[in-house]
Amino acid sequence: MSCGGPIAAGRCLMLSNKVREIMTREIITLDVSRTVHDAIALMAEKRVGRLLITDKQAPAGFFTERDVLRRVMNKKLDPKKTSIKKVMTSPIRAVSQETHIVKALGAMYQGKLRHLLLQDDKGAIVGMVSMRRILKLAVELGRGLSETQTIGSIMSR
């Protein structure tokens, strides 16, 4: 594939670049024994839309703003009495941080996932990537960016 011109360059970036280049390194966690109320309070405090739920410090699921709406409020559950384990999104999936962005997107689409954990070559969790982050990259690339811009400069906006 030729990478001449901004649109072709965008395609090349999506096909050749790795998720480690756009990953979020800071992951806010909450233990599976906590309540939905605890999760919502932590999300508000940290100003994030999702938490990684852990069980004995191992990844167990994600809890997102969407889960609050669909699995808690829609079912009229009491956030102070509802265990996060009951309403978290699980199972979750992890891929190598060396995975190409387009392959990660495919894994998310096939698994109906909005988030992937990223692992280093030893299997340690080093970050995560969201569908929203990949979509942001695609939108920015679609605006006809110059070929000299890097993914780092795009994602730092």
Describe the structure.
It is a single chain. This protein folds into 2 domains: 1-23 and 97-157, CBS domain Like (Alpha-Beta Complex); 26-91, Roll (CBS-domain), CATH 3.10.580.10. α1 runs antiparallel to α6. Helix content is 40%, strand content 19%. β1, α2 (36-46) and β2 (50-55) form a beta-alpha-beta unit. It has helices spanning 6-16, 36-46, 65-73, 84-87, 101-111, 131-142, 151-155, and strands spanning 29-31, 50-55, 58-64, 94-96, 115-119, 125-130.
Q: Can you give keywords for this protein?
A:
alpha/beta; CBS domain Like; 157 residues; 3-stranded mixed sheet; 2 domains; CBS-domain
End-to-end separation: 28 Å
* Poorly predicted runs: none
Instruction: Label the CATH architecture of the largest domain.
Output: Alpha-Beta Complex
> Average pLDDT across residues?
87
Put simply, the count of helices is 7
Describe the structure concisely:
This protein is α/β, with parallel strands linked by helices and 157 residues long.
